[in-house]
Amino acid sequence: MKRYVDRLIEQVKENPQKPLVVDRDGTRITTRNEFLNTARRIAALIRRKNIPANSCIPIVLDSCMEYLAADYACWMTHNASVHLGTHMPQQRIDYIASDVNAPIIIDNDFIAEAISCEPDGRIDNREETDYAVAFYTSGSTGNPKGVIYTDGFFWKGNQNLQCSTNDSFLENDSYAPTTPLYFVVMQLIYGALWAGATVHLLSFNVKTDIHNMEKYLTYHRISVGFMPPTMLREFNNRSKFLKRIITGGEKLVNATPPEGYLVHQIYGQTEAPFYVLSYTLDKYYERVPMIPIGDIEVKLVDNEGNTVKQGQEGEMLVKVPIPPIYINDKEKNERIRKEGWLHTGDIMKQNKDGQYLYINRKDWMVKINGQRIEPGEIEMVMRHVPEVNKCVVKAFSSNNAVRNYLVAFYTAENDINNGYLIEELSKKLPDYMVPKIFVRLDEFPKNANGKIDRKNLLAPEEALLLKEYIAPANETEDVLCRVFAEALDFKRIGVNDDFFELGGNSIQMMKIQQLCNSTLSNISTNDIYLGRTPKKIAELLAKKSKQEKEILDDYPLSGIQNSYFQICMQAIGMPVFNVSKLVQLGNDVDLNRLAHAIVTTVNNHPAFFTRLTTDKSGEVRQKFVKEYFSVKVEKVTQKEFNTIKNDLIQPFYLLRDRLFRFRLFDTGSCKYMFSDIHHIIYDGESQTIFYQDLEKAYWNKALDVEDWSSLEMAAEEGKMRKSNIFNLAQTWYRKTFEGLGNTKHKYLYPTTSEVADEIKVNLDVNLESIDKFCKDSNITMNIFTTAAYALLLGRYFQDNDVLLLSAYNARSDKRTKNTVGLFARPLFERIQWNEEYSVKNYLQSVKKTILEGMQNSIYSYLEMQQDIAFPEDFLFIYQGDIVSEPKIGGCTTTEIILNKKRIRPILETHLFRNGKENRLEIEIFYRESCYRRKEIIKMIEDYQTILRLMINSNILKQK
């Protein structure tokens, strides 16, 4: 470039004898004047060969003064230099020379010929758009990818380099980089040459030996050096002259500022002007942050191109006002000129201070059990295992992608025990991030740039994933081994093979339960969590079948019970979480007989006799307190009843009251039954169980005894909450919702005293068509209707990333089929989509989201609220076929809606299935301060439309 050549001429005039380049292990010193004359000699030979202007001329030399002089010679003659090296394979050199249509190559023979030429002092005119330098890097297609810098682009990069004292070079600096000149980071040399600093070009023996490096920097009084983080970690400075080490090309992790000199991290791209982010290490960082240089514009985007929020991960995009030119890639050139943004392919996130943290390459990302995993994080931890030298972590899938698993490849002097490695990694990583397979290599495969070639790290054979085969010893073990193999896609499973180590997830768990349904019907997901192997699960099942219930003085609250208790304590004196129902009975119902049936049914379910108390430490506990109670028939006039019914719902004082109430009324003309049961002992499925038992008791039929009470289930959950199951669930929720806050919702939140209005209507959709669609798509009605509701919210928010609160009955354990209690758990669901998704892919994505939420729902409502930090403003619950008008005494009942005056979310939607009348019924409660009635009606109409479109359309795109 003319600017650089003119700058060199100015420096020669100022001080021609100042050393500019030192090479040959420090034995050859080239002054400014000598350097300029060498460049002019090379330029003379280029002109003699009649090279067309704006040609790309490869330089294939060792790291030496002539290499840099050749750069200046190309600029003098209106050409561009292409940086290659003698250590490159000849095939790669030939490919690149052909790719740029090179007229000549500057190699050792060319330099030998040029030295005999007279210096040519002419400098051809250059424009901003002229080619200046080309760099090649590895390409995704398997061939090298080339990028050309124009004069304008190159000059812009140098301005960025010189923008601050920490980033720029000074004239009295001596700079020693450790990278080859064909690496893009060698651009720092141009900054040093511009400043008039002395550049030391190190030999291979110095660059690759840390001790030789330490000696060289000391002896030659180097003030600024460049070395990658891997070398920097081993560097022990011996020089009092060293001021700064620049590092980059990899993540700088677990770094502490050294004594005596600064460490300056940089980040750049082959396509970016010099570099775009930097940071001077000022304290210990697990991962060193960076900030943009000068006026460089950057942003982070998700896969759909949307800017991510602070704290979320996204691909780094760099604003390039003067774009680089991709060699022989017209499509990329047009795209970057059009968009103005360079897609780096690097994943980063901003910390709370707005600084950027490099995570990893986009194409290194993996997912295990739905969890996004950065191999670099695992590698960072593994590098701290003393015996490990280098490591690479990579994910693999089975042939049909049934399971994913991580493999850690490493180099070490000797084999390292896998159990020891797992133990060491488990100290800092959650279980799903710990590889279970380790492969020791003598050395890693390398690509042409000398970097580790991840593509050539191949999956280990299946036998390495399995323990030594031990055949099943009994029928239960045999069944479990067979269903494990089918669910996880293995030819054969032994009794000691671990479900999770083999890549098992929530979907495979459910498949195992389905496969075991006819033979091991009592297997639960908890058994798989706790047992993990066929042998241990079989032992748990055998123990369960013989297990006698342990009678305790008191029991812990389950996670959801504790959440509800805490919420109620903040609203003492209000009817919070009352499950209330008033029904008008048939005239033929015998109320005295019904009163006896209520007592019989209540006595059959221990949950009704739950009383809450606190122990000495203040922890809330629940006790089984069997108390006598009866139900009387109250005879009142219809007018009296109309007054009484408005005050039927009363608050429960949880640490004092019995947690249920029943009342029967006879007005002479009508008969009524009222039930009011606190949600902390009763959920929607419990209501169905209760009314089914009540009808049996009315007709003096025997009731099924509970296999396992809600108290005992709470005690079992308490043990699980102290296990790694809880930690995994916590990690999943925090990862899934990381960085999300209440900014997703666009309403000012009203006071908690506000009451919602409601609308309940029948949806104009064909239930049979929906049932068939769900069956064909292998999804449930809950998944289908929830997915449609998310699209509805997305339409109103104009956002393809929706947060909502849902719930499910959490009765996967078959022991609870007849148990009254609180098993329902809330699900905070984050549903994302791309408008170009197919409906099928979208529904499978929602299915995966819901199933993973269910799997991790041991993490309680209160804990989710505290961690996720957004209010449950939008609640959607598919209620299914819950009985809304149960039969009592052989007569159909009619529910009477009571004014519950309950605090509700901004928008609460319940969907009911009415199979008898082939319809869906929707009930919406809404805050009048946030919505008008006509808006809710319009939303219902839109929801109907979305349900129909999902059945009849292949593409998700909304209009």
Word description of this protein:
The chain is an alpha/beta fold. The protein has 7 domains: 1-19 and 29-150, 3-Layer(aba) Sandwich (Rossmann fold); 162-294, Rossmann fold; 298-359, Luciferase, domain 3; 365-465, 2-Layer Sandwich (GMP Synthetase, Chain A, domain 3), CATH 3.30.300.30; 475-546, Non-ribosomal Peptide Synthetase Peptidyl Carrier Protein, Chain A (Orthogonal Bundle); 555-712, Chloramphenicol Acetyltransferase (2-Layer Sandwich); 728-952, Nonribosomal peptide synthetase, condensation domain (Chloramphenicol Acetyltransferase), CATH 3.30.559. It is 33% helix and 22% strand. It contains 28 helices and 41 strands. Helix 14 (475-488) packs across helix 17. The chain is elongated. Mean pLDDT is 84; it is low at 742-753.
